[in-house]
Description:
nucleic acid binding; two-stranded antiparallel sheet; 6 strands; RNaseH_sf; Tc1-like transposase DDE domain-containing protein
Amino acid sequence: xxxxxxxxxxxxxxxxxxxxxxxxxxxxxxxxxxxxxxxxxxxxxxxxxxxxxxxxxxxxxxxxxxxxxxxxxxxxxxxxxxxxxxxxxxxxxxxxxxxxx
Length: 101
C-alpha cells in the first residue's frame, strides 16, 4: 500500500495586484465526493473567475474604470468569452495582452 501524499501534487492559483493593493488569491477547485479537488483552468473557468470574483472585487473598490488589465497570451486568456468580458469592463484600450484583443 502506497502512503497518501501530504499535499496535492498541483494547485492552480490566480492572484491579481495593482501598485496600490493585492486584489485577492483565487484557487481553482471543484468539489468532488471526498472534498475539494484541484482542476485545470480553461477558458470557461477563467471567464467565470473574472466575472464572479475579480470584477466584483474591483467594483467593490470602485476602481474598474481606472484599471489597466494585463495578462499573457495563454490560450485560456484569449478565449472569445474572456475577450468579450474584458472588453465590456475594461475596453480594448485598457487591456494589455501578449495576443491582440
